[in-house]
Amino acid sequence: MNQQLRAAAAALFFSAGAGMALAPVRAAAVETGGAATRGADLARVLKNNQLLAAQGNAQAQFDLGSMYERGRGVARDAATAVRWYRLSAAQGYAPAQDSLGVMYKKGQGVRQDYAEALRLFRLAVAKGEANAQVNLGVMLEYGLGVPQDYAAALDLFRRAAAQKDGRGQMSVGWMYSRGQGVKQDYAEAVRWYRLAVAQDNAEAQTNLGFMYSTGRGVAQDFAEAVKWYRLAAAQGNAQGQNNLGSKYDKGEGIAQDYARSYMWFSLSAQTGHEEAARNLDIVKAKMTPLQIVTAVNMADECRKRDFANC
Fold it and tell me: CA-to-CA distance for 67 and 52, rounded, in angstroms?
């Protein structure tokens, strides 16, 4: 498989159309480039980070890069994020090395370069950075710039999981569910997903919901599947939103409601989720014009509430 195809596979969400069984999320393929800056007074946080970063403080440089990457307190600017991550990484700050690696892997703010991403991930892994362990594991799992190696990927995921990293735990569960680098074991996958959901990992919530929906490793329970999909959807997880929309469409584990099905498919589709866009067309064909208008308004209100209480 060439690098372009592998890159596409690494970002793929596996699902099926409305009314069909939905496959789980590959959570570890979705990187995070460092902790999001928090706090109500973003202007003050920005000013403090700028002051300390200019003085050469590696953590402040990293935090400033994160603010620019996410557009928190400033206009989103990937190139500026890369500049600050690079300054911090040059001082050996592992989270910045990891985040800069993510930017190279995605080609955000810099030309895509798997070799450079691998180099940076390895530097951070050598310092025990759990997020980098997962990100390097994903590169190995999909053979991105490196020969595909499930066993090595699983080892890295286990190392992250040993640090109680939710993405690491999620990724170990994924490998068990797929039988990659280890004998397929749905019950063991569920065990790892439960560890990850205890940390509110949205991808693990979606995948645990899928296990309940399909009865893999647990007794089939649509209501329980809906519970986990809803938790993931409330965190903005596109696959969880898509899967929850499917449950509303089919009336599995919850009363059938085309308007809410449309709402969740619409919210998921707005992130670029292709299957949700197709599902949206399917459910739309079942609705009256008035129901569609109602559903569109529901989606707008849900988005304004950041998916809470939808």
Answer: 14
**Residue whose pair of structure tokens reads 């409305």 in the numeric block:** 18
Torsion of CA 244, 250, 255, 257, to 10 degrees: 80
| Angle of CA points 101, 103, 108, to nearest 5° | 160
Rounded CA-CA distance 270/294 in Å is 18
- pLDDT tens digits for range 20-54: 335 465 543 333 343 344 455 889 999 999 999 99
Q: What is the DSSP string of 231-291?
A: HHHHTT-HHHHHHHHHHHHHTSSS---HHHHHHHHHHHHTTT-HHHHHHHHHHHTTS-HHH
- Write out pLDDT tens, residues 77-86: 999 999 999 9
The alpha carbon of 246 is separated from its chain's Cα centroid by a whole number of angstroms, namely: 20
Displacement of CA 154 from its chain's centroid (Å): 18
Report the alpha-carbon distance of residue 208 to residue 225 in Å, rounded: 7
All residues at 6 or more sequence positions from 280 whose CB lies less than 8 Å from its CB, including other chains = 262, 265, 266, 269
Tokens read off for 223: 């209501």
Torsion of the alpha carbons at 171, 29, 18 and 306, rounded to the nearest 10: 100
Residue type, 35: A
- Helix 166-178, helix 186-197: angle, nearest 10: 160
Who's near 240: CB < 8 A, 6+ residues apart? Answer: 25, 202, 205, 206, 209, 228, 229, 230, 231, 232, 233
Q: What is the pTM of this model?
A: 0.85
